[in-house]
Write a sequence for this structure.
């Protein structure tokens, strides 16, 4: 549509050129934000070497977990708050500031002046600030697009935006390997020129085409939500770490206190939101079926997708690649490369499903995507540990296609079900469900995997070491180490057997053939294959269950406007005047 001459600063109809500018800039933003959530995952071995930190030392597991989960935790906590700020003070204003914060943190990350634990803390702290900037971007990008695009093109635009975010998660795996092979600091350098360019471009071209609601900050709501959700996610992080004589920390009293306290604060948050005049979130949005069940389906898919990503990386790096002749030092890069079919599936299905959702409606496509997502988990569950790659590639490509089929229509349905003045907070709430699911998935899937390993790995490891001439005392000592160390060793591209035997000097008392067998590529992968497969079956069965629950939730969302059900009427100020059908559960 053409731009009206001499329009007011706010609420002027966006033109065709502007909507594509908004799409280009916001797509780059969510891609960068998502990429930085995963790029560090593959680059961790180089980062730990760069700051001279032993990745398998018991006290250093916490650094590794916080580098992975800290970014997701902050994004999960903040996106609703900054989405609300966007509704109040301008979505573009908050979004532009987010680009500047994100770029500034990237610069500081690449100039870590410390070594050891202090170097790790420097990186974790600035990753937190980077996540703040990323939250400001992701919370408002969908709202900016919903304001800029007409209803008949909204699904296509949000589809591209969503696929960019999901593709960024997996392209980060390859980019992290490539950049870390050159210099670990390059993992953070890559954001600087891109961030500077898009920050300047955003400030010069984006404008407020929606409506600002004004109002005030709901401080008590923000505090109870942020502290409550943080406590739960921090408890998940501590739960993955060994405690006392247990393989995990779920029996740690601190974990119990954090979870209980977090849930109490979240319950208090709901009470506060129901009573305050200017709530942080609009609980009334949950009266809309498309919004409620779309977010529940998105949460289930997010948990499944996030956990699967880590499990597949460990499977490739720790077992399959070494068995096929790849050096441990090279497995992080090749794991990312071999997972490219997953990214290709995202890129192929996302825009197409967004385009189709504008014409056919969201429910059928999103439900079909969730069902295909679950079917791919069942296929992966049936694979042997030493699989044929082409079957693996087909299954993860189907998983990527399924994610693309689901994400675009689901986002379009959620964002299209809310009034214009609440699109910022709705976008933030949607992102909170997604980011919380990803953060929780790490704890859930790792816990299931560690539980599966704990049953048989100690005996297998102890027996295998003794068969190669290691003393019973040393073999038992190593076999009783927490399985989480073996999992992280596989993820970091480290041969844990060689790493664990060196301090005791046991290798020097063995024959050359025994040393070669223990430190070679095949001993540890062959030893862990059986216990790992037991864990995989549990993990993938759980993922399939989540996917089928997501399909049920997607069906329950009801029909949407694309299928012939009208949306709430809005006044010129963007306020919603719900009809009788909107006050029911049909929307």
């Amino acid at each position: 549509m053409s731009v009206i001459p001499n329009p007011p600063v706010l609420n002027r109809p966006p033109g065709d050129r502007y909507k594509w500018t908004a799409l280009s800039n916001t797509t780059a933003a969510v891609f960068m934000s998502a990429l930085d959530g995963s790029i560090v995952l593959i680059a961790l071995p180089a980062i730990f070497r760069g700051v001279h930190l032993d990745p398998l030392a018991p006290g250093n597991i916490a650094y590794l977990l916080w580098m992975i989960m800290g970014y997701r935790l902050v994004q999960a906590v903040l996106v609703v708050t900054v989405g609300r700020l966007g509704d109040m003070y301008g979505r573009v204003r908050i979004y532009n500031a987010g680009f500047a914060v994100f770029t500034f943190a990237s610069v500081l990350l690449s100039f870590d002046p410390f070594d050891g634990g202090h170097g790790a803390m420097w990186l974790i702290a600035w990753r937190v600030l980077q996540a703040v900037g990323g939250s400001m971007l992701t919370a408002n990008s969908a709202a900016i697009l919903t304001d800029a695009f007409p209803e008949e093109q909204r699904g296509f635009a949000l589809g591209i935006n969503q696929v960019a975010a999901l593709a960024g998660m997996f392209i980060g795996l390859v980019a992290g390997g490539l950049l870390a092979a050159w210099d670990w600091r390059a993992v953070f350098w890559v954001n600087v020129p891109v961030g500077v360019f898009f920050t300047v471009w955003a400030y010069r071209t984006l404008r407020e085409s929606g409506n600002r609601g004004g109002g005030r900050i709901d401080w008590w709501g923000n505090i109870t939500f942020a502290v409550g959700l943080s406590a739960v996610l921090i408890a998940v992080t501590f739960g993955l770490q060994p405690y006392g004589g247990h393989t995990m920390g779920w029996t740690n009293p601190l974990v119990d206190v954090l979870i209980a306290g977090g849930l109490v604060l979240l319950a208090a948050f709901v009470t506060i939101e129901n009573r305050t005049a200017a709530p942080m979130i609009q609980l009334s949005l949950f009266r809309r079926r498309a919004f409620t069940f779309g977010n529940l389906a998105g949460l289930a898919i997010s948990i499944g997708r996030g956990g699967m990503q880590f499990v597949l990386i460990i499977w490739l790096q720790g077992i399959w690649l070494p068995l096929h002749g790849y050096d441990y030092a090279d497995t992080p890069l090749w794991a990312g490369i071999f997972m490219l079919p997953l990214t290709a599936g995202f890129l192929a299905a996302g825009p197409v499903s967004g385009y189709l959702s504008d014409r056919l409606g969201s429910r059928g496509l999103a439900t079909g995507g969730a069902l295909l997502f679950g079917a791919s988990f069942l296929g992966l569950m049936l694979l042997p540990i030493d699989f044929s790659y082409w079957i693996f590639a087909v299954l993860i490509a189907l998983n990527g296609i399924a994610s693309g089929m689901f994400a675009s229509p689901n986002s379009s349905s959620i964002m299209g079900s809310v009034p214009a003045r609440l699109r910022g907070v709705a976008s933030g709430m949607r992102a909170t469900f997604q980011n919380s699911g990803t953060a929780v998935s790490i704890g859930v899937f790792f816990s299931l995997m560690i539980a599966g390993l704990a049953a048989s790995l100690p005996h297998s490891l102890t027996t295998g070491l003794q068969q190669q001439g290691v003393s019973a005392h040393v073999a038992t000592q190593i076999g009783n180490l927490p399985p989480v160390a073996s999992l992280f060793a596989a993820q970091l591209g480290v041969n844990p057997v060689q790493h664990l035997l060196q301090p005791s000097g046991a290798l020097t008392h063995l024959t050359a053939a025994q040393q070669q067998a223990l430190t070679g590529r095949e001993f540890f992968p062959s030893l862990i294959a059986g216990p790992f497969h037991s864990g995989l079956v549990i993990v993938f069965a759980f993922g399939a269950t989540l996917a089928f629950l997501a399909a049920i939730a997607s069906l329950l969302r009801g029909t949407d406007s694309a299928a012939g059900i009208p949306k709430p009427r809005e006044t010129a100020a963007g306020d919603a005047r719900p009809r009788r059908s909107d006050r029911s559960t049909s929307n």
Remarks:
- The longest strand covers residues 569-570.
- Confidence is low (pLDDT under 50) at residues 1-14, 560-587.
